[in-house]
Specification:
The chain is α/β, with parallel strands linked by helices and about 260 residues long. The chain has two domains: about 1-75 and about 155-225, P-loop containing nucleotide triphosphate hydrolases (Rossmann fold, 3-Layer(aba) Sandwich), CATH 3.40.50; about 90-150, no CATH class. It contains eight helices and ten strands. The protein has helices at about 45-50, 85, 95-105, 110-120, 135-150, 165-185, 195-200, 235-260, and strands at about 1-15, 15-30, 35, 60-65, 65-70, 75-80, 155-160, 185-190, 205-210, 215-220. A six-stranded mixed β-sheet has the order 6-7-8-3-9-10, sandwiched between helices. Strands 2-1-4-5 form a four-stranded antiparallel β-sheet, covered by helices on one side. It is globular, with a radius of gyration of 19 Å.
Length: about 260
């Protein structure tokens, strides 16, 4: 269980203090798929960086199991929007995965089986000799996922991993990710500003307010079977409800941008 309790995050600069998060609380159960949703600039990525251990908290606490999260750990892996920059371009598909295994000090005798398992899982087995530059955007994301899974984390932290992909590839990646998640049963915390994406993927959707002083305003549990068809009336109704919930913050965000 990943537990965030009354977390506050303040950034200091020459211009003064900026309160990004101000009392964020959420519990994520083992094996759950949770999406953090709201427009850019609300602190979702800051929150994810805190879960990953890349950022410290200014107040409150984050625990995984019974242990406080005070830095990066083997139990959590971060996935980024730009898979190309996350991968090592001078290494092949297979070598990128083996590099992660070497860094995590996984016995070399296990590398072949682990590499084969996860390349097969993401559908890249026949591309193992290619380099990242030879892969499509969706394939690079599949490789990033395979490399992260290979080190056997308990929690996958995903920062808008499909935002840079075209619409068709994005929908295909949703299916790939859900299939992997259902097979491996890992916990996923997924940041997005796309309502449809959150509805398609999540067990629960944590809606966050626009910063500064961002908080979770509501947690929504879509009572919908998977796969979820965005043309379904129940899905469309939920989309409208979330859109209505976000509208006041979207207006406030526009006002903030105009003021600057």
């Amino acid at each position: 269980m990943l537990r965030v309790t009354n977390v506050r995050k303040v950034f200091e600069s020459v211009r003064g203090s900026y309160v990004a998060l101000d009392g964020v609380s959420l519990t994520v159960k083992g094996g759950e798929f949770v999406c953090l949703l709201d427009p850019s600039g609300c602190g979702k990525s800051t929150w994810l960086n805190i879960l990953a251990g890349f950022e410290s908290v200014s107040g409150g606490s984050v625990t995984f199991g019974d242990a406080p999260v005070t830095g990066p750990g083997r139990d959590r892996v971060m996935f980024f929007q730009d898979a190309g920059s996350a991968l090592l371009p001078w290494l092949s598909v297979e070598e990128n995965i083996r590099f992660a295994l070497r860094v995590r000090k996984i016995p070399k005798a296990e590398w072949a089986d682990i590499t084969d398992r996860y390349l097969d899982m993401v559908g890249l087995d026949s591309h193992r000799g290619k380099f990242p530059a030879e892969l499509s955007g969706g394939m690079r994301q599949r490789l990033q996922i395979a490399r992260g899974l290979a080190v056997e984390p308990n929690v996958l932290l995903m920062d808008e991993p499909f935002a840079a992909l075209d619409a068709l590839t994005r929908r295909r990646m949703h299916k790939v990710l859900l299939d992997i998640w259902q097979r491996i049963g890992k916990t996923i915390v997924f940041v997005t500003h796309d309502i449809a994406e959150a509805i398609s993927l999540a067990d629960r959707i944590a809606v966050m307010s626009v910063g500064p002083r961002s908080v979770i305003t509501r947690v929504i549990e879509p009572d919908l079977p998977r796969p979820r068809d965005l043309a379904d009336t129940k899905v469309a109704r939920l989309f409208g409800e979330i859109e209505d919930l976000l509208t006041p913050d979207l207006i406030r965000l526009d006002e903030q941008l105009e003021a600057h």
